[in-house]
Description:
It is a single chain. The protein contains 15 helices and ten strands. It has a six-stranded parallel sheet with strand order 3-2-6-7-1-8, sandwiched between helices. Strands 4-5 form a two-stranded parallel ribbon. Strands 9-10 form a two-stranded antiparallel sheet. A hairpin with a 2-residue loop joins strand 9 (about 325) and strand 10. It has about 350 residues and is α/β, with parallel strands linked by helices.
Amino acid sequence: MTTRFLTGPAGTGKTSQAVNHLRDLLERHVPANNILVIVPQHTLAHPYLNLLNDPTLLASGKVDVVTLSGLSLQTTSLFWPLVADRAGFGRPTAPPIFLTIETAQYYLQQAIEPLLAQGYFGPNEVDLTISVPRLMSQILDNLNKSALIGLPHTEVANRLAAAMQLEQGGKVALDHTQACVNQFRHFCLTRNLLDFSLRIDTFYQHLWPVAGIRQFLVKRYRHLIMDNIEEDTPFAHTILQEWLPETDSALVINDQDAGYRIFLGANWRTAQQLEQICDKTSCLTNSHVISPEIMAFTERMTHILGFGEEEGDSSLRESALTPSQGDKRVKLGESALPLTPSQ
């Protein structure tokens, strides 16, 4: 078996091939608990879950379909006694408490309330008006993004300041933001509270580097399927770069011209680096959902906007601009009135 990098535009059947690959593994009696399907978002897992609900596939329910964030939660919970003290948690003998978005906001407000009472983000200090819910959302978003790109949480303000031209009030606001970030991280560590960012940091810094824990994951999951890898994060891509060479088989799916979740931390550039460590690359080009005329029109617009070379048949591009009305056609710019026989 090999590691394969499957790429192509949307609608060319990449996920369908991956679902068939999963079916083939199960029909060849590969142990289901040795198969791991990784998706960037739970909504993208539906094609695989639909297959696994097929009652004719024996033991299919044992296949894990997860995000790497979900895998980090499972692993942290399993190996908590080995990592809690080393990772700096204040109650290493007590179990971890994994926070949702809502509970993270609740505890964040408790953690930074003393700072807000001192006038942080107040108009007298930074000339900035922001609601507390919006402030908490921004702080958590910055924490999460820093974890997903491997940036220490103590560097959040410095990185933001380096990326923007700021007035004095803006610099003070970033200093206040960093103080709140630090306060919240200390608050969580002392109470065994793991928000999303601390869960990622704990897994990447204190679990994955431990040879025994890494081998537990690598030896358990011998067959990997990774879909929409361009919508995943540098955290996921770094883990997979070290994991892929250890597998018995792997299928990595990359959607060209995608990466729309960049605002959630996705990075299509680091995703494409996974191709270099795969044994084989396959490219699908024929769309099953987009007509050749629309594809040609897309290529033309891409060329006009300066993002690629113009290819394909010019007659197809012209046809894409000719909407159909029954058996008659009308070009754009001509009358758009219905072409019906005169009464």
